[in-house]
Amino acid sequence: MLYADEHIPLKIVQRLRSEGYRVEDVPRGLADREIPANALAEHALILTDESDFSRMILDEGKLTAGVVIISISFRVPVEDEARIIVEM
Asked: What is the pTM of this model?
């Protein structure tokens, strides 16, 4: 399962779901510092475009199932970004 944070475009989430991935939105109101523990409890990878998560996990030693950091480019159509992620 993937936990998609609020910065991941909906088209990417929809494409992942259409390919059979279980993608859940990070619960609203959940503080960034709480996301790794929630994701771990759900055995979910965190899908984000923020490198803050990797720093927080490494610097603070937070346990997690993993973090997938994507770089979103406004020069590449979001549909193509979604395809690239699915094909990884």
From this structure: 0.79
Cβ–Cβ < 8 Å for 63, 36: yes
Nearest by Cα to 7 from 58, 64, 47:
47
By the 10 Å C-beta count (0-12 exposed, 13-18 middle, 19+ buried), 10 is classed as exposed
Task: Give the whole-angstrom CA distance, residue 64 versus residue 76.
Answer: 30
What's the order of all strands across the beta sheet hosting 67-69?
A: 23-25, 2-4, 45-48, 67-69
- Give the tens place of pLDDT for each residue, 41-84: 999 999 988 767 777 777 878 788 888 888 877 777 777 777 77
